Amino acid sequence: MSEKRILEVCVDSVESALAAEQGGADRFELCGNLIIGGTSPSPALFRAVRRETKAKIHVLLRPRFGDFLYTDREFGILQEEAESFLEWGADGIVCGCLTPQGALEESRMRRLVELAHGAGACFTLHRAFDVCRDPMETLSFCEALGVDLILTSGQKNTCLEGIPLLRELLTAAKRTEILIGAGVDAGAVLQLREELPAAKQFHMSGKTVLQSGMEYRKQGVSMGLPSLSEFELWRTEERNVRAAREALDRA
């Protein structure tokens, strides 16, 4: 029997986690604020998702929107968050720190990997990989550090655009597994299975945009970026996850 293909779903609410699990997700990447690429989730969100679901939870650690060049204070927060979520039972930590030159920051990455493995958990390098200077060198570095998974689109905006690099990574990887993300849906899964038969792990959000239940909508006042509507919610759609699951499991 062939090895099962793993489907990870990125969620930032209990509602999305429940939909993802019902659709067939093997695990969650739990974050906050998915609309801006994800930030660290709150402890209360983690506990609620743990309480109401059974899937494994890998927790995204990201102190803010933007790049992955962190100050000492920001890294201190990341380290404390890693320690706390692991103590609370996270199955994995998802993080990444870069140098100004676009390489992985060795001492910080080593510390985070050690924290995860010391707790018997998995460590994933997130899409900081997709903005690093040299992907093959970074893969070798990850393998030396003991990174378990690399979440990547092949350094493109979508995984289908990134197929050439993904193929190289899957061929070169010995210990670290390649987790393919960005634009993953049922159609992409079918194409990826055909073009990258060695791929075993896939990451998606399966999101849909819902309208807020607010009836009164004050105009001209933004709580954040003016380009983002205050009255639209991103939620994982169960049927989107199920369609990807079925595409993964198809003989």
TrEMBL record:
Source species, domain of life: Bacteria
Keyword terms: Cytoplasm
Keyword Cytoplasm: yes
InterPro entries: CutC-like, CutC-like_dom_sf
Keyword Cytoplasm: yes
Subcellular location: Cytoplasm
HAMAP family reported in the protein's UniProt record: CutC
Homology family: Belongs to the CutC family.
Name of the protein this chain belongs to: PF03932 family protein CutC
Organism in which the protein naturally occurs: Neglectibacter timonensis
Lineage, opening ranks: Bacteria, Bacillati, Bacillota, Clostridia, Eubacteriales
Gene: cutC
